[in-house]
């Protein structure tokens, strides 16, 4: 696909097409355009030929938005700053930033921040939901959400990374993670902070956090 003057071209597919067989593709991933044209190039490896379609309209696409937090429920300490990052890309406008990104807390109607990063001074203990809304120049919107848990020091939490499948330990405050092969010890400090992904090659291991 390309703009009328051919300055912005987007490859759709490269494949063998049998003679007298229609080539079908989905236009859902193509950027919106009121004057987009399709360009077909045929080559035998030595010579090539091309043809353009008549200009046509492609529907404007919604932006793609993601909150960069791999864990399904991130742990934060009470009375401590909370920083979360999100990113968004629009097929027509490119990378979105600034006022095009709006953050909301617990489905509230008001924005609590804009741009990629949002930082909150603190939140009360409990479960909270952060929503990032991306808005492109055509007014198309898309949202992403993440859940966070604000806790007091003194507890150790387990979560599973949905992408890697790793078991991740989380805790709040200045606690020191310790491990042992026996529940009675002796305990060895693990030189890490929260969160901590448990290695999958370990034998039975017990963990605790010392505050």
Molecular structure report:
The chain has 211 residues and is an all-beta fold. The chain folds into 3 domains: 1-59, no CATH class; 64-151, Immunoglobulin-like; 156-210, no CATH class. The protein is built from no helices and 19 strands. The strands form 6 sheets. Strands 6-13-12-9-10 form a 5-stranded mixed sheet, with no helix packed on it.
Summarize the structure.
The chain contains no helices and 19 strands.
Mean pLDDT: 85
The share of residues in extended strands comes to 35-45%
Task: Please state the second-level CATH architecture of the largest domain.
Answer: Sandwich
Structure annotation, total helices: 0
Which structural class do the helices and strands define?
mainly beta
The value of Rg in angstroms is: 25 Å
The share of residues in helices is: under 10%
Question: How would you name the CATH homologous superfamily of the largest domain?
Answer: Immunoglobulins
Largest β-sheet summary: 5 strands, mixed
Features:
mainly beta, Immunoglobulin-like, four-stranded antiparallel sheet, 19 strands, 0% helix
List the helices and strands and how they pair.
Blueprint (H helix, E strand, L loop, with lengths): L32 E4 L2 E5 L4 E5 L3 E3 L5 E4 L5 E5 L4 E9 L3 E2 L5 E5 L7 E2 L2 E4 L5 E10 L5 E11 L4 E5 L6 E5 L4 E5 L7 E2 L6 E2 L8 E5 L1
């Amino acid at each position: 696909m390309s703009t009328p003057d051919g300055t912005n071209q987007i490859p759709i597919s490269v494949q063998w097409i049998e003679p007298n067989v229609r080539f079908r593709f989905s236009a859902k991933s193509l950027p919106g355009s009121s004057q987009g044209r399709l360009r077909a190039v045929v080559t035998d490896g030595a010579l090539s030929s091309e043809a353009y379609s008549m200009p046509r309209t492609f529907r404007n696409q919604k932006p793609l938005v993601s909150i960069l937090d791999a864990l399904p429920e991130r742990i934060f300490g009470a009375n401590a700053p909370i920083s979360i990052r999100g990113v968004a890309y629009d097929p027509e406008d490119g990378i979105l930033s600034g006022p095009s990104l709006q953050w909301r807390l617990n489905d509230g109607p008001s924005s609590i921040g804009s741009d990629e990063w949002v930082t909150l001074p603190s939140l009360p203990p409990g479960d909270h939901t952060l929503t990032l809304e991306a808005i492109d120049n055509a007014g198309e919107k898309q949202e992403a959400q993440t859940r966070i848990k604000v806790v007091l020091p003194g507890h150790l939490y387990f979560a599973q990374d949905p992408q890697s499948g790793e078991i991740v330990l989380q805790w709040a405050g200045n606690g020191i993670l310790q491990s042992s092969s026996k529940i009675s010890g002796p305990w060895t400090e693990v030189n890490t902070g929260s969160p901590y992904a448990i290695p999958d090659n370990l034998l039975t291991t017990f963990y605790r956090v010392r505050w």
